[in-house]
Inverse folding.
């Protein structure tokens, strides 16, 4: 392991399952990925996209069908114990901590599970719960805590392992808006303070947009986009426009606009019609204008839309689904 | 001064590190037993009542047989309690951890999953000793009999006997990871253990190869007849050591194989 090694290097990772009826399902399909040290990478994807299987395969909790995973330069399948010196994880759908122990007892247990057992570690545990703003619950049973506090306990225990690489699978799942926002802020603080490498999977776009430097979008087991958050949003920034035209548009013109420029979200306002178009490239805007001119209407305004991460994500998935379905 | 929260690599998996792991698992077990003391006491009480039923029932049906074999029955029951606890604890732990959603967290340790399970087994066996000792004290008071409890002789024999039970526990633990709901097999094995403990090893020497059979027989000689460890047949002691090692090694290999298969299926943390 050297500092030049990426924190995580995944090469051609594939995981297939054979179902009871003999059918083979590919949950992760030839995924390759490198994560640099100190970065926060978000993994997005619709349900069943393969995010959790990919994360568990990277962690060695699921044995991949093929491909290699190196964490901190160590091959996870060849030497898992050595690789786990560098890795901690909060896993989706699991409690991750013992509900019949107190927060402090959990922190001590999981810290020791990574070989840390000193008074300095105990002080660090108190600091984690203070950062996550639930230090008054340190000696309460986890079972008696709210869902948000339980999730915070799981996060604190993962941090208490003091590993340089963290996998957080849906860390804000099921939390109310306020708790989720607090947790995001606190998580950001912890990540920035300690310079950890984080791979974070979430359905919560705000969480990903605020925490991540880079986003990997998965669909049907494949990586379909891998960009910085800004680049991913920019990808669509100049391609989505809201147009206002004076006068009426015939059905045939609407159909043509929908077919060529994915026109949608039609609205009629005082003799004007508003709609959105999604263009494959900037030049198509002129083609769109030509169609309107041929239809005898004048564009009154053209406004570029600034999509957020959620919109970018939805469009990528729609594009992928359209590509899979093929031409009509 | 702010506490050290740097991301340092944990201690190498040396003996010192294993001590930390032992402390983690031992402390957790102790805290839970203490916190749920009523549950612990109830479990011991149930075992005690079970013995009373065997003892009083036996005395009512065949008083002479019970009186003649009182020491054997007591030693057998003592071994059975510890063996069932030692073998079942690991499987039950794995079921609980899967249900609690913490099993995969145990896997993600630099000590290695195998070492975690091995240390869990050591803690379970140690706990079984305590249970066994408590039950034995209750049995001796109830039956007003006396047994030779030479610690130097009894402890190694119990440890070697329980090692074979722990080996069976490893196998069942592995099957639990793979097939999940196998509680019925646990019950069957509990009854099989009764048969193994009562196996007539003097008449049929091959039965010595079964788990618990030889160990219980030797314990009977020590606790019932007052023999010392070094007064027991060397061949039997050697066989006991070989058997304990074999059961443990084979059980551990099966367990590791099963956890690998469970990970291939993506079902390690499922229950």
């Amino acid at each position: 392991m050297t500092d030049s090694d990426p924190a995580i290097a995944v090469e051609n990772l594939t995981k297939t399952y054979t179902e009871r009826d003999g059918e083979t399902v590919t949950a992760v399909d030839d995924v390759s990925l490198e994560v640099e040290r100190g970065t926060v990478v978000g993994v997005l994807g619709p349900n069943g996209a393969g995010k959790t299987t990919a994360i568990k395969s990277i962690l060695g909790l699921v044995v991949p069908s093929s491909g290699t995973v190196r964490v901190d330069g160590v091959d996870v399948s060849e030497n898992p114990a050595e690789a786990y010196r560098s890795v901690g994880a909060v896993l989706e759908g699991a409690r991750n901590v013992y509900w019949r122990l107190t927060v402090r007892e959990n922190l001590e247990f999981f810290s020791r599970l990574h070989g840390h057992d000193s008074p300095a570690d105990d002080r660090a545990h108190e600091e984690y719960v203070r950062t996550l703003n639930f230090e008054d619950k340190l000696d309460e049973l986890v079972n008696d805590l709210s869902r948000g506090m339980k999730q915070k306990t799981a996060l604190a225990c993962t941090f208490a392992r003091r590993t340089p690489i963290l996998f957080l699978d849906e860390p804000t799942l099921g939390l109310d808006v306020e708790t989720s926002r607090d947790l995001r802020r606190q998580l950001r603080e912890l990540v920035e303070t300690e310079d950890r490498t984080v791979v974070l999977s979430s359905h919560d776009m705000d969480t990903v947009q605020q925490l991540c430097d880079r986003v990997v979008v998965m669909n049907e087991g494949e990586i379909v986009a891998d960009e910085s958050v800004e680049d991913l949003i920019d990808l669509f920034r100049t391609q989505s426009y809201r147009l206002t035209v004076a006068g009426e548009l015939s059905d045939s013109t609407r159909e043509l606009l929908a077919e060529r420029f994915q026109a949608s979200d039609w609205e009629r306002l005082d003799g004007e019609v508003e709609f959105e178009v999604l263009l494959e490239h900037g030049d198509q805007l002129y083609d769109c204008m030509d169609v309107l001119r041929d239809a005898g209407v004048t564009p009154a305004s053209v406004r570029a839309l600034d999509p957020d991460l959620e919109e970018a994500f939805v469009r990528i998935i729609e594009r992928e689904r359209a590509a899979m379905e093929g031409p009509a | 001064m702010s506490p050290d929260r740097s991301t340092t690599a944990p201690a190498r998996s040396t003996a010192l590190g294993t001590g930390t792991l032992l402390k983690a698992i031992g402390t957790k077990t102790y805290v839970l037993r203490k916190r749920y003391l009523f549950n612990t006491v109830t479990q011991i009480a149930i075992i005690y009542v079970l013995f009373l039923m065997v003892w009083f029932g036996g005395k009512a049906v065949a008083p002479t047989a019970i009186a003649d074999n009182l020491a054997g029955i007591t030693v057998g029951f003592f071994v059975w309690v510890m063996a069932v606890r030692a073998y079942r604890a690991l499987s039950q732990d794995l079921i609980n951890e899967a249900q609690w959603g913490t099993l995969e967290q145990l896997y993600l340790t630099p000590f290695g999953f195998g070492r975690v399970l091995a240390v869990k087994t050591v803690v379970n066996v140690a706990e079984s000793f305590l249970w066994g000792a408590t039950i034995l004290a209750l049995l001796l008071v109830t039956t007003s009999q006396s047994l030779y409890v030479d610690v130097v002789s009894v402890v190694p024999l119990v440890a070697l006997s329980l090692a074979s039970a722990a080996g069976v526990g490893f196998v069942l633990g592995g099957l639990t990871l793979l097939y999940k709901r196998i509680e019925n097999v646990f019950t069957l094995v509990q009854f099989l253990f009764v048969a193994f403990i009562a196996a007539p090893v003097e008449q049929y020497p091959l039965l010595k190869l079964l788990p618990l059979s030889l160990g219980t027989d030797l314990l009977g000689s020590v606790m019932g007849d007052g023999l010392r460890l070094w007064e027991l047949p060397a061949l039997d002691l050697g066989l006991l050591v070989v058997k304990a090692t074999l059961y443990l090694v084979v059980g551990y290999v099966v367990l590791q194989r099963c956890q690998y298969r469970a990970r291939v299926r993506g079902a390690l943390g499922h229950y």
